Amino acid sequence: MSESPGTPEPAEAPSPDVEAQAAQQVAHARRLDTDDPLAALRDRFTLDDVTYLDGNSLGALPRAVPGRIADVIAREWGELRIRSWTESGWWTAPERIGDKIAPLIGAAPGRVVVGDSTSVNVFKAVVGGIRMAGKGCTEILVDATTFPTDGYIARSAARMTGLAVRPVEPARISDEVTERTALALVNHVDYRTGALNDLPGITHALHSAGALAVWDLCHSAGALPVGLDAHHVDLAVGCTYKYLNGGPGSPAYLYIRESLQNRFESPLPGWNSHAEPFGMDPNYTPADGIVRGRVGTPDILSLLALEAALDVWEDVSIEDVRTKSLALTDFFLDCVALYAPPGRVRSVTPYDHRRRGSQVSLECSRAGGVMDGLIRRGVVGDFREPDVLRFGFTPLYTSFVDAERAARVLGEVLRELPEEQPEPAGDGG
Ligand SMILES: Cc1ncc(COP(=O)(O)O)c(C=O)c1O
């Protein structure tokens, strides 16, 4: 019987055995935090008592951002006004900030430009890629498990260029690519399952067939090494509001391989990408290099918030981030196995380190209600339809104590919300 509408059944007490193991896990988590070489980075962020495991959706606020934005508004805009386009470096911010992201995704300077949303950059990359592909190409391949926007944009780009779209599971792309394939658009980490796709292998197979590789790095940049230059990726896009902590709606980026830059014909050739933007020439002449990826006037406030957010990466190696990410997700999975009632959740994130991103996704009945219960108790992850709980681990600020607490609270919520019980109804009880 419900005590009141929406109030779950009383929790079934964990066994004394589990309580003893929990005490051991807490002690273990504290030791792991003490030994963690990245632990001090947490102080670079504004955090509270909430266990925040949604940095794979919206990264936490770096402490330096509010002060920087206050200065941009009061001084650069308020006092310098138009002069800031040159004197405060506003005009060149898209390339300058691209160069700050570049080392995190394995790119040399001059290969990344920041601006627009990921969706818009997918459009630029796919149409630009098709325009560089061989004449006989008739199709593009799209990751069948992609975040939906990439698929929507790719279908529109294909319609505009007269090509067909073929959805293919990432693991099948190497076998399915043919000499008629212009390019494949693939997510590096699957947003739903957290599975890491084989960027080097798929890129190599695409190149062997004469196709270009276009990668969406939204769920990998800032969480693990990407190696764009090393693996000869052609084009890549990604957002900056997840593991790069740029803030809500912060601008995305576009990577273009150096040898392709002067062949890249943008489908959105706005004046910012012109060789002489202030020449006001009615005819379009593209700029050289990565500037070609720009479109219109950059969103300066968001862009400069992102720039300040990227300062947290000073002295941080992405390899160390990866090591901690795997340790955190391993530890969380162990804790879930200990605390969750048997059979209630199933990890859809691969256990194999070579195939895991930086999130753990658990399939679970009544996942929406379970996540609500977690959030009410101060553990914030998220939920994807129909039945996936997602827990994102941001090694810059997530601790092992966070991982243990999240799993323990998950166990409590699952015991309170039995699998077969209907959603608590307003029964007036
Ligand atoms: C893999 C992936 N691609 C694209 C997007 C969409 O990005 P935007 O809203 O910046 O266009 C997201 C958003 O979460 C994403 O996860």
Could you please describe the fold and organization of this structure?
- By secondary structure, this protein is an alpha/beta fold.
- It has two domains: 16-37 and 317-416, Aspartate Aminotransferase, domain 1 (Alpha-Beta Complex), CATH 3.90.1150; 65-313, 3-Layer(aba) Sandwich (Aspartate Aminotransferase, domain 2), CATH 3.40.640.10.
- Helices cover 35% and strands 14% of the residues.
- The strands form four sheets. A seven-stranded mixed β-sheet has the order 4-10-9-8-7-5-6, sandwiched between helices. Strands 11-12-15-14 form a four-stranded antiparallel β-sheet, with helices on one face.
- The radius of gyration is 23 Å and the shape is globular.
- The chain starts with 15 loop residues before the first helix and ends in a 13-residue tail after the last helix.
- It binds pyridoxal-5'-phosphate (PLP).
- Pyridoxal-5'-phosphate is lined by residues 117-119, 147, 149-150, 187, 191, 216, 218-219, 239, 252.
- Pyridoxal-5'-phosphate binds next to helix 5 and helix 6.
- The modification N6-(pyridoxal phosphate)lysine is found at residue 242.
- Its cofactor is pyridoxal 5'-phosphate.
- Keywords: Hydrolase, Pyridine nucleotide biosynthesis, Pyridoxal phosphate.
- Pathway: Cofactor biosynthesis; NAD(+) biosynthesis; quinolinate from L-kynurenine: step 2/3; Amino-acid degradation; L-kynurenine degradation; L-alanine and anthranilate from L-kynurenine: step 1/1.
